[in-house]
C-alpha cells in the first residue's frame, strides 16, 4: 500500500476513534464499582478494539455511523482529514481549486459548523477565544509565526499533538505535529470557536492505541 494511503487511513482511524470515544465516554460516567461498570457496559455499545490498517478504518466508520453520535468537534476533525492531499493554492478555499491555510479553515467550519470565518489567519486569530496549550481540543485553531506575524499561518488541531494545515506553495494539505522542532518554535497560540467537548481522556487513550 502506498505511503500516502497508509498515512490517510491512520489519521482517518484516529478521527473515528475520537468520535467513538467521545460518544461512549459521555454516555455513562466512570465508576470504581464493578457493578456500576457492568451496568455501564450493558447500557452502551462497546467501542471497537484498536486495530491497524484498512480494516480499522472500515470497521470504525461503520460503528460511528450506526452506533455512535459524533459531536461537532468530531465532525470538524473528520471533515479536515477528508481534505488531506488537496494542493496548496494562494487564496483558495475550495477542494477543487486548492486551499491556503486560512481557506482550509474557512471551508471546514463553513461546511460542518455553518460558521462564516474570515479568509485571513490574523482575523481568525483575533475573533476566536484564546485557549491554553494544555487545554487544546480537536477542532481548535492553532497559529504560527512563519512570516514575522503572530498569525502568519493557521491549522486545525485534531488531537495528540497533531494538526492539519495547508503548508505552502508546492505542498498539499497534510498532518504535522505541534512538538515538531520547526512548528514548536513558531507556535503562537490557539483559538476556539466551538464549545469544549466531553470524553477527552477516553478519546486520548484510544487515539494512543490507534497511533
Describe the structure.
It is a single chain. This protein has 211 residues and is an alpha+beta fold. The protein folds into two domains: 3-70 and 198-210, no CATH class; 78-192, endopeptidase domain like (from Nostoc punctiforme) (endopeptidase fold (from Nostoc punctiforme)). The protein has eight helices and eight strands; from the N terminus they run ααααββααβββββαβα. The protein has helices at residues 3-27, 34-43, 54-66, 72-81, 101-113, 121-127, 181-186, 200-210, and strands at residues 93-94, 98-99, 129-131, 141-144, 153-159, 162-165, 174-177, 187-192. The strands form two sheets. A six-stranded antiparallel β-sheet has the order 3-8-4-5-6-7. A two-stranded antiparallel ribbon has the order 1-2. A hairpin with an 8-residue loop joins β6 (162-165) and β7 (174-177). α1 packs antiparallel against α4 (72-81). The model is unreliable at 1-11, 16-53 and 198-211 (pLDDT under 50).
What secondary-structure arrangement, pairings included, does this model have?
Layout lengths: L2 H25 L6 H10 L10 H13 L5 H10 L11 E2 L3 E2 L1 H13 L7 H7 L1 E3 L9 E4 L8 E7 L2 E4 L8 E4 L3 H6 E6 L7 H11 L1
Antiparallel strand pairs: 1-2, 3-8, 4-5, 4-8, 5-6, 6-7
Helix pairs in contact: 1-3, 1-4, 1-8, 4-5
Amino acid at each position: 500500500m502506498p505511503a500516502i494511503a497508509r498515512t490517510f487511513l491512520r489519521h482517518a482511524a484516529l478521527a473515528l476513534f475520537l468520535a467513538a470515544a467521545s460518544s461512549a465516554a459521555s454516555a455513562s460516567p466512570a465508576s470504581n464499582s464493578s457493578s456500576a461498570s457492568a451496568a455501564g457496559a450493558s447500557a452502551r455499545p462497546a467501542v471497537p478494539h484498536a486495530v491497524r490498517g484498512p480494516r480499522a478504518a472500515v470497521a470504525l466508520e461503520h460503528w460511528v455511523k450506526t452506533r455512535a453520535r459524533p459531536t461537532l468537534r468530531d465532525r470538524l476533525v473528520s471533515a479536515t482529514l477528508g481534505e488531506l492531499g488537496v494542493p496548496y493554492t494562494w487564496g483558495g478555499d475550495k477542494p477543487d481549486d486548492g486551499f491556503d491555510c486560512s481557506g482550509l479553515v474557512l471551508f471546514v467550519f463553513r461546511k460542518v459548523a455553518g460558521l462564516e470565518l474570515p479568509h485571513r489567519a490574523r482575523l481568525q486569530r483575533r475573533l476566536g477565544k484564546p485557549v491554553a496549550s494544555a487545554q487544546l481540543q480537536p477542532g481548535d485553531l492553532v497559529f504560527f509565526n512563519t512570516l514575522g506575524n503572530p498569525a502568519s499561518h493557521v491549522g486545525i488541531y485534531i488531537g495528540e499533538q497533531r494538526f492539519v494545515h495547508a503548508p505552502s506553495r508546492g505542498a498539499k494539505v497534510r498532518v504535522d505535529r505541534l512538538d515538531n522542532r520547526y512548528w514548536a518554535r513558531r507556535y503562537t497560540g490557539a483559538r476556539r470557536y466551538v464549545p469544549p467537548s466531553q470524553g477527552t481522556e477516553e478519546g486520548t487513550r484510544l487515539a494512543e492505541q490507534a497511533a
